[in-house]
Write a structure and sequence with these properties.
- This protein is of the alpha/beta class and 375 residues long.
- The protein has a single domain (3-374), classed as Aldolase class I (TIM Barrel, Alpha-Beta Barrel), CATH 3.20.20.
- The chain is 57% helix and 12% strand.
- The chain is built from 17 helices and eight strands.
- The chain has helices spanning 7-11, 25-29, 32-38, 49-57, 63-67, 74-99, 119-133, 148-157, 170-186, 203-218, 223-232, 236-252, 255-261, 286-289, 302-311, 322-334, 339-374, and strands at 16-21, 42-46, 106-110, 138-143, 162-167, 196-201, 269-273, 296-300.
- It has an eight-stranded parallel beta barrel with strand order 1-2-3-4-5-6-7-8, surrounded by nine helices.
- The mean pLDDT is 95.
């Protein structure tokens, strides 16, 4: 397939940047990441502890660096391994970062999952990682918890790029936007070097809501109610995202932001995360095709990225069906399912899913270090 035929490349024609949600040292050493950038139009990268756990433990790519680590602690070794991968990936994206004038070409690195409820701890580690990686196209990932928001505001004010992650509720997203604006307003001087994205999660919402719908379907024999419940399956996450985008547009077209834009400020783009389709009955690229819009990002796991290259059908879909989206969420409430409860539960579960792999990573790295250093 030529670049002219590649849907991922054409995604940018609609104002959306395709990022990849993956990072392994092999992607860098084999030239895979370079090809994704130069041939497939990938314009950024996200990572998380679960991704690094699979990468470090699942290959021999890191053995030489582990062997050279001497008597460092396991957390220190982990940071050394991750920082090198992030630096090398950031260097590959550097030409794009420069040519886009800092609009794209970012690589995200998350603070420790243990700090999701610790504002001061998140700030301290974010500053440490920012200085350690020492790349202008780094984004520090901070969970969008109530404790994370003051850290986001402070980091933006300090001129540090932030990827605010684990956003499920529109109310949480709105609070993130406010933290971003306050951070910009507190920063003295030119704002053109500061960038941020707000990572809004998708497939996990549909998975949770669909389970609740299925339980309700099993407990009623009324065909009309069953039909209403079935009609909502797989519809909620996209509706929720479309309404979040309407808030994005209202804020970043407002006089308040225009005053910041005059100082060089960039909008904080919405980034669609958790875009791999978990239910096999749904189209595998639905969280790409249904959310194509200006000034947004879609970070895709490798399988979704490949599927999109193969058969994505693109159209400017994000700004369509807004009234229908609101009706879907109204109907969800009418059938007795609280989206607020769903998103609250998903945030708690998401934090647990980050700490679990991190615990596993450190334990596995400890065992691997003992084997590698003994060989």
């Amino acid at each position: 397939m030529t670049m002219a035929d590649n849907p991922l490349v054409h995604l940018y024609d609609f104002g959306q940047s395709a990022w990849v949600d993956d990072l392994r040292r092999g992607m860098i050493t084999t030239g895979e990441l370079k090809q994704l950038i130069e041939k497939d139009g990938v314009r950024g990268l996200t990572s998380n502890p679960a991704i690094f756990e699979k990468a470090i433990v699942g290959s021999a790519d890191y053995d030489q660096q582990i062997r050279a680590s001497g008597h460092k602690s396991v957390p220190e070794i982990y940071e050394d391994l991750v920082v090198k991968d992030i630096q090398d990936a950031a260097d590959l994206f550097a030409p794009l970062y420069e040519s886009s004038k800092g609009a794209d070409g970012f690589v995200s690195l998350e603070v420790s999952p243990y700090l999701a409820r610790d504002t001061e701890g998140s700030l301290k580690e974010a500053h440490h990682l920012w200085e350690r990686v020492n790349r202008p196209n780094l984004m520090i990932k901070i969970p969008g918890t109530p404790e994370g928001l003051p850290a986001v505001q402070s980091l933006i004010a300090a001129g540090i790029n932030v990827n605010v992650t684990l956003l499920f509720a529109r109310s949480a997203y709105e609070a993130v936007v406010e933290a971003y604006l306050k951070g910009l307003e507190a920063h003295e001087g030119d704002l053109s070097g500061i960038a941020s994205v707000a990572s809004f999660f998708l497939s996990r919402i549909d998975s949770s809501v669909d389970d609740l719908l299925e339980k309700k379907i099993r407990t009623t024999s009324d065909p009309e109610i069953q039909g209403r419940l079935k009609a909502l399956a797989g519809e909620v996450a996209i509706a929720n995202a479309k309404l979040a985008y309407q808030h994005y547009k209202a804020v970043f077209e407002s006089p308040r932001f225009q005053a910041l834009a005059a100082r060089g400020a960039k909008p904080q783009r919405l980034l669609w995360a958790s875009t791999g389709t978990k239910n096999p009955i749904y189209r595998d690229v639905r969280y790409v095709e249904e959310l194509v819009g200006m000034n947004t990002v879609n970070t895709m796991p490798p399988a979704t990225l490949k599927a999109c290259v193969d058969h994505c059908e693109l159209r400017p879909s994000l700004d369509t069906g807004i009234e229908a989206a609101q009706l879907i969420l109204d109907e969800l409430a009418a059938v007795g399912i609280s989206l607020d409860q769903v998103t609250d539960d998903l945030l708690a579960d998401g934090l647990a899913k980050f700490t679990g792999p991190f615990d596993k990573l450190l334990a596995s790295l400890k065992a691997k270090t003992e084997v590698v250093t003994a060989s």
